[in-house]
Specification:
By secondary structure, the chain is of the alpha/beta class. It has helices spanning 54-66, 86-100, 107-133, 149-158, 178-181, 201-210, 231-244; strands at 2-8, 14-20, 23-29, 39-44, 70-74, 138-146, 162-168, 188-193, 216-221. The protein has a single domain (2-81, 119-244), classed as Alpha/Beta hydrolase fold, catalytic domain (Rossmann fold), CATH 3.40.50.1820. The chain contains 7 helices and 9 strands, in the order ββββαβααβαβαβαβα. The longest helix has 27 residues, at 107-133.
Amino acid sequence: MQFTAELRFDDGVLEREFTLGEIPGILWTPGSASASAPAPLILIGHPGGMRRMYPRLAARARHAAAEGYAGATIELPGSGDRPRSAVAEEARADLRRALQAGEPVADEIVDRLVLPLVEQAVPEWRATLDALQSLPEIGGPVGYSGGVIAIGVRLAVVEPRISAALLFAGSFVPRAMFEEARQVTIPLQVLLQWDDEGNDRQMALDLFDAFGSKEKTLHANMGGHTGVPHFEGDEASRFFARHLK
């Protein structure tokens, strides 16, 4: 991991851009984080396009930092400045055509788009976690917050360092991954926008039902994909306070 840029905000939060091999990312740490008082870490997931989504990602990270957590995100494969995948681009175009036509999205489109992404992104997230946990100011339990929800599901199954996850139900999930969802046992909070125009609501509800966690909570709010109420940030803080502190 190499840090490439640094910015200190007025609230004491330190933002550092980094690269891990060819993977760009950003780490935010609260001013209180130190080797003697390391901060728990929240991995901040998103649907790709880290630069485009920076305002929202930074807002989420600084909200978490105010509660004493470090936050980190990385660019997804095929997004931002990373090399494109012809297969993924074709699947994404097919997905858009189906949604614009008001047609059901075929399982094979979802599989072509999401499964290769999960297979590549999850090892990258785990390598990033290895590097972040080697820093003296990062320590304690780890949480995952955000999407792509299929990536969050896979991480919750294979990564024992993740103690709790707040999953954003705003993207399609391959049917084959429902069996993985049954293997998830960590505490979950799932955020669903009821009128999300780019998501399959019934699939999201079925996925929630499939999760094997004894503690799982569904927060469903009216509105589209970007209409998440501000109070959900406070709900997220309370969720992670129960499981990361």
